[in-house]
Amino acid sequence: MIEKPLSKLSFDKKNKIIVCDYDNIFIDLDDTKGILKRPQIANTPDMIYINDEKREIWFIEFKSSNHHSLDTTKEKIKLRKKIFAGLFLFYEVFCEKSCLYKDYDKFYFIAYNKEKRESYEDELLDMFSASSQREIEFGLADLKPQFIKDIFTEDCEELKELFDKRFNIKFTKEQK
Fold it and tell me: 135: helix, coil or strand?
């Protein structure tokens, strides 16, 4: 498996933006699909994390886009395709002969730039959402729990906090 630092996994080449600027190493699912040596493979999530102790698999997609850009029908369809492509690719790569991962819970995390929410209405909604239940955005809630145990649509800081609480993984940045 090909592994890279989080800062490289979350780098948006087109916009030259690092979504999650940390040095922790994780599996690069985009480059891992290259080992299948097929001319065309669907777009997949950027990163995968497997925790054998908790029997969990985490697919992570990094988006430098803001909420408004991701909330279009076209982008929602792309996100859904990535989720399914990631699941299929995972089983193809990791479960060639037998699969001890088939009973693992699968989670999906879309880390996007929530800070770019631009309208007053969005700020007002954010203010009220802190006291309400976590929302799965971009029309992905219906994938839970049939395909994915849970889906998170948050920013990099939420990903950092979740991995710290859940797996005791502290995202670190090398001092330069």
Answer: coil
How far, in Å, are 51, 81, 85, 112, 132 from residue 142 at the CA level?
Answer: 25, 14, 17, 20, 19
- 28-77 pLDDT, tens digit per residue, is 887 766 655 555 566 788 999 999 999 999 999 999 888 888 888 998 99
Q: 175 lies in a domain?
A: no
Structure confidence by residue, pLDDT tens digits, 114-156 = 764 455 455 555 545 544 467 889 989 999 888 899 999 999 9
All residues at 6 or more sequence positions from 79 whose CB lies less than 8 Å from its CB, including other chains = 61, 70, 110, 138, 140
Total domain count, the chain? 1
* Spatial CA neighbour of 45 closest among 104, 108, 91, 127: 108
Residue 103 lies in a domain: yes
Range of the domain at 137: 3-167
Number of residues assigned to the chain: 176
Query: Is residue 174 included in any domain, yes or no?
Result: no
Q: Which residues contact 65 (CB under 8 A, 6 or more apart)?
A: 75, 112, 113, 116
Whether 173 maps to a domain, the answer reads no
Model-wide pTM > 0.85: no
Which residue type occupies 47? M
Phi, then psi, of 112 in degrees rounded to 5: -130, 170
CA distances from 110 to 74, 83, 95, 100, 144 (A): 16, 10, 24, 25, 14
